[in-house]
Amino acid sequence: MDIFLAIVRLVVAVLIAYGIVFVAALVNIVFERRALAFLQDRLGPNRTGWQGSLQSVADAFKMMGKEDFAPSAADKAMFTLAPVMVMIGAVAIQVVVPYTRGWTDQNLNVGLIYIVAITSFTVLAILLGGWASHNKYSLVGALRSGAQMISYEIPMLLALLVVAMGAGSLSLNTVVTAQRHYEWFAFTMPFTFLLFFIASIAELNRGPFDLPESESELVAGYGTEYSGMRFGMFFLNEYAGMTIMSMVTVTLFLGGWQGPLAGALVIHGVAIVPLLWFLIKVYALVFVLIWIRLSVPRLQVDQLMDFAWKMLIPLGLVNLLATAAVVLWAPHWKLAMALYSWLALIAFVGLNDAVLRWRLRRRRKRVTVTG
Amino acid sequence: MLGILKAMGTTLAHLPQRKITVQYPEEREQLPERSRGLFQVVTDPASGEPRCRACTLCETNCPVQVIRVNYTSTHALPAVDDARISRVRAASQPVPDTTLIAPVIERFRETGQGLMGVLQHTQEIYGYLPRLALQEIAVETGVSLSQLYGVASFYDQFRLNPVGRFVVTVCHGTACHVAGAPLISEAFSEELGLEVGKTSKDRLFTLQAVSCVGACALAPVVRIGDDETHGRMTPDKARSLVTELRHRAEVDR
């Protein structure tokens, strides 16, 4: 009986996770289009449904109605497998995300490591899709994407380790409870939060790191040969990823479901009000992602790699070591960690432009001497 | 990093600003007074009659063909031969038997397409496109006369004037020109007493010049009607050809 219950629980959890992925993707597409439009003094799509709310539903049906086309040179099995596989990351991450108090599908004690492990699936699917398309543009796009995602996984991991140190556990539920009384890690370790946030944008392949699908350079990146619903799967995953990654970020840095009136409405041990806080935080973060995409121009591929390997990874390592030292040796380590992290953040924000300018000047000088 | 924050501030400042989109069918922008956005027939304030004389010039000239002149006067129907050219042309043409084109129009009605086909069949029947037949087509099919005229005058294959029994076509392609086509044309027009492009009074000959008939090996080439071709013409041969054709017409009579 227990096994039966466990199986039902598993199926329900997976169905909910898939549901969240699809709904989140559709919501995000409309949300992004409307938000971008408003930030650009436009109105955006507002005809389908109330204020255009059904626009992406209509788009999804359109996508399903399209011809399912595969190039004759493509590796059929892999070509079909890639769009299916690309969802795995977004779905599987939700297994460990605490939606609200009393609702976590699986309270893994290695949740953080699980997240890092599972996000790589998306890279695999993208590489597979690009390779199976048998098209050089797809392949180059996929390789760019793979290189980018692997590079930015490292600073992400380094930031996650700092979170684990702060919470004293790798379980996401413990991470959330460690942030009670508004001791959100975004406040106590803002520098780590910034590093993680930048890395997560790159993981999502979103602007300013949306090179894998840069229209002006690579046709459509890894998705060049994909059309119809297969393309739709990549597309949905991309947009669902915004919500999923924001869920992770909120859980790790913004106190998860924590908020006032946490115990106001509890049904079968699942608190409803915190779910609301969780969603509000997630969508605030999604808006920030959209906002950043609009404001920051795309990087060049060398700048992208430069930024990961020469800025984020060294900074992440230094941050990891410094935080470790603070946690180990400082009295009142929480206060000391917050002090250190805020100082680091101010220094990073203040000095970054100057350092970049200095490096640029140095490079220009070198170029004029040799050339 | 500070630059990025500044950029983000700029974009966020646009969030609450007034949107510039005008939702067209519901909202309309205030257009300047002299805007020509909407067609309208102007009414003469004195008589109350529309100032439009239904000349269909606007219909013919409209590049996107959105204008249709569908004029019915309260006083009297406009005369069919309103324009001078068409009156002259109609006067010069024998009254055609318009019942001949009824099956052609019937076929057009069934499919609703193939205006070119209708005109081609009409030309097959009469040898040219009579003014009254065009009017008949316009009335029966609902395609405006001006549009029919536009099509008929655009293509070289359509003739708006009756042709003679023998259509003498002199090729003026490069090869024929070099081989002396101008001399041939000259000989024909001397012998027939006709200018190029005209039809003789007795409706026996029509003399015309075309760019190429595609038989450069026989240059210079002359065709009589659609099924007789004479190659390697000289002015002398042209003259004897005219005599022969005249003789043929005598025999037929």
Describe this structure in words.
The complex is a heterodimer of chains A (371) and B (253). With 371 residues, chain A is mainly alpha-helical. Chain A has helices at 2-39, 55-65, 76-93, 111-132, 136-167, 172-177, 185-188, 190-203, 215-218, 228-253, 273-295, 301-329, 333-370; strands at 266-267, 270-271. Chain A has a two-stranded antiparallel sheet. In chain A, a hairpin with a 2-residue loop joins strand 1 and strand 2 (270-271). In chain A, helix 3 runs antiparallel to helix 4 and helix 3 packs parallel to helix 10 (228-253). The longest helix of chain A is centred in the first third of the chain and has 38 residues, at 2-39. Chain B has ten helices and four strands, in the order H-H-H-H-H-H-H-E-H-H-E-E-E-H. In chain B, strand 3 and strand 4 form a beta hairpin. Chain B is elongated, with a radius of gyration of 29 Å. The mean pLDDT of chain B is 81.
Short précis:
Chain A is mainly alpha-helical. Chain A has helices at 2-39, 55-65, 76-93, 111-132, 136-167, 172-177, 185-188, 190-203, 215-218, 228-253, 273-295, 301-329, 333-370; strands spanning 266-267, 270-271. Chain A has 13 helices and two strands; from the N terminus they run ααααααααααββααα.
Question: Which features does this protein show?
Answer:
heterodimer, A: 371 residues, mainly alpha, two-stranded antiparallel ribbon, 13 helices, 2 strands, 1% strand, globular, B: 253 residues, 4-stranded mixed β-sheet, 10 helices, 4 strands, 7% strand
Largest beta-sheet characterization of chain A:
2 strands, antiparallel
Number of strands of chain A: 2
- Broad shape of chain B: elongated
Ends apart, CA distance between termini of chain B: 102 Å
Low-confidence stretches of chain A: none
Number of DSSP helical runs of chain B:
10
Class from secondary-structure proportions of chain A: mainly alpha
User: How would you describe the shape of chain A?
Assistant: globular
Indicate the radius of gyration of chain A in whole angstroms: 22 Å
- Strand % of chain A is under 5%
What proportion of the residues of chain B form beta strands (DSSP E)? Answer: 5-15%
The helix-and-strand class of chain B reads alpha+beta
Annotation field: number of helices of chain A: 13
Helix-residue proportion of chain A: over 70%
Radius of gyration of chain B: 29 Å
Low-confidence stretches of chain B: none
Task: Give the SSE order of chain B as H and E letters.
Answer: HHHHHHHEHHEEEH
- Identify the biggest protein-protein contact and residues per side: A-B, 17 and 18 residues
Can you give the mean pLDDT of chain B? 81
